[in-house]
Write a structure and sequence with these properties.
By secondary structure, this protein is α+β, with helices and mostly antiparallel strands. The protein folds into 2 domains: about 170 residues, no CATH class; about 170 residues, Histidine kinase-like ATPase, C-terminal domain (Heat Shock Protein 90). Helices cover about 60% and strands about 10% of the residues. Strands 2-4-5-7-6 form a 5-stranded mixed sheet, covered by helices on one side. The protein has a two-stranded antiparallel sheet with strand order 1-3. Helix 3 crosses helix 5 and helix 6 runs antiparallel to helix 7. The longest helix is centred in the middle third of the chain and has 67 residues.
Length: about 375
Amino acid sequence: MFAGSRGPSPPSGRSPDRTEDSRRPLGWILLVVAGATALGLVATVQAYFGMPSSEPMSFWEMTKYWLPDYYLWAALAPLILWLGRRFPIERRGWARHLALHVAAATVLLQVELLVSCAVISVIASIPERYDGFWDYYRTVARGYFLWGLIIYLLILAAGQAYQNARRLRAQEVEAADLRGRVVEAQLRALKMQLHPHFLFNTLNSIGALVRTGERERALGMLAGLGDLLRYSLENEERQEVPLQEEIEFLRRYLEVEQMRFSDRLQVEFRVEEEALLASVPNMILQPLVENAIRHGVSPHGGQRRVRVGASRRDGQLQLEVQDDGPQPPPGWRPDESSGVGLRNVRERLARMYGSSGELRVRPGSTAGVVSTVELPWKRWKEAP
């Protein structure tokens, strides 16, 4: 860079930028050597075409004056970077650290100049206009001290920028990890909220059967409840499952409910085969079906039907639960439902999918209520 006074033309170019990474030392060494070589060749080309006609020199001879300088600064870069990490120029104490770096740059510059001049005297020759080695060295030292200081500060700034970038990336990763842990904890809490809610409702149904003397049906419900609780506990840590697995859990739940309602409850599944491969939140359908049974079947006599559907629509997975009970009264506002199940579903969708996940509850076209969940289509094998 500033070896120009050692050859026939003034200096040009920049110092190589090198940073350390203990995990990939060989890669960084090769990168720095390649960068130093490229910059040295660029500076050589510029010096070659700007060379005075009174001092002709071949391009190969010219490289002997330029490349050593770049390689030496590349070799000093690890020490400069270490000094930068040890004494960073930051808001607090920046003046003292800057003065320390100026002193360090002065010392390293003299070392670099001595070694560079010695190398040039061996592989090339000191230009004739200089009266020996020390005259050559003093001339270079006087003329290029400021440029050497700039080179030092450029390497220092590059290293500090790299460290700041790494620190920022680490903070972003840590913040993202923290956000992920918070969301995971919130989802787990929401999911655990379903367990006592589901358990208490089912136990109340079993208690009602016992009070009416229907012991066989009560025992059957207890056995079914045991299967459901075992599945729920085995999958407690899973936030997403394939829809096929969710449907199987729902079938077991409905078998328990059908024991309670006997032939009053009919269930119909309309699930596209492709939709069975989709990834869905664990236990997302059970609260919707429970809501349909509570409001569309339980308070009313006669046979009632609950339909469960799933289909793929324009990159979205659509899940639908509908009952054929009476329509809600005028002025009914489904979006203000405060039931544990529906509120839980809305909060889980919001935390897992943001605005891409939605629950809509509306009156059916002729009877009952329709609950529709929309979420991004994702095949189960692609789920994290």
